[in-house]
Amino acid sequence: MALELTIFFFADDAFLFVRKKQSKVEEFVKMLTAFERMYGQSINLEKSMVYFSPTNPASQRANLSNLLKMRVVTNLDGYLGLPISIGKRKFATFKSILDRTTMKINSWSKKLLSYEGKEIFIKSILQFIPIYAFSVFFIPNYVLKELQSLIGRVWWKEKTRIESITKAARILYEGFGWNVKRGSRISIWSDKWGFEGLSGDLICLNRREVQEEKACDLLNKEKNGWNEKSVYEIYGDNMGDQIYKIPILHNSPNDSRI
């Protein structure tokens, strides 16, 4: 019966698969010897290696390795960045893809990319990393989800950063006061305005008793000064004196933040 031999040729290596029976291994050794005689080339046994299935007993491994005169290895090197054998721990096997993707993201994270630049980065670089593995193996779903999450964070990271800055700016903006000019943009109930940071908490009357809503409602008919009666009724004598000191410029620009 002929020797059952499976051969895979790569750029610099050849993988030969033989059944673990001693008779098959002996036939394999004879085949290698015949090859050397026929082509006048010697096989470098020092660089050759043999890998046994984990189910092989230790005694059988020792016997067969003596026949082959090759060193025994417990795992095989990868080829083109991919593992040759895949065990039960598939996540650990494909973790290198995630690591390479993370390294690329970290190396590019300091660069300010437009959305067009991010699209090119994702399609031309990040999605290219696992493309060979995808064509060879069935990648576990949890590895695909993790990869999708990494790439998704690249796309949405800047948006999240901008939203955070906008939110912080809103909070800071709310803490700013108003410089009174026309008074049309200033709410006497919710805004801080004037030199003392006046707010609705300083109003002496109940809200239902006050018709005025804006700072401009506290001005006189000519809009060039304060309505003394309204100011003192709403804020009392002490705060009324402070408000009366705030100058109003006739035909001045609109109110501004300070």
Automatic annotation (TrEMBL):
- UniProt xrefs under PROSITE patterns: RT_POL (PS50878)
Q: Could you name the domain of life of the organism this protein comes from? A: Eukaryota
**Any idea where the Reverse transcriptase domain is?**
1-84
What is the protein name given in its UniProt record? Reverse transcriptase domain-containing protein
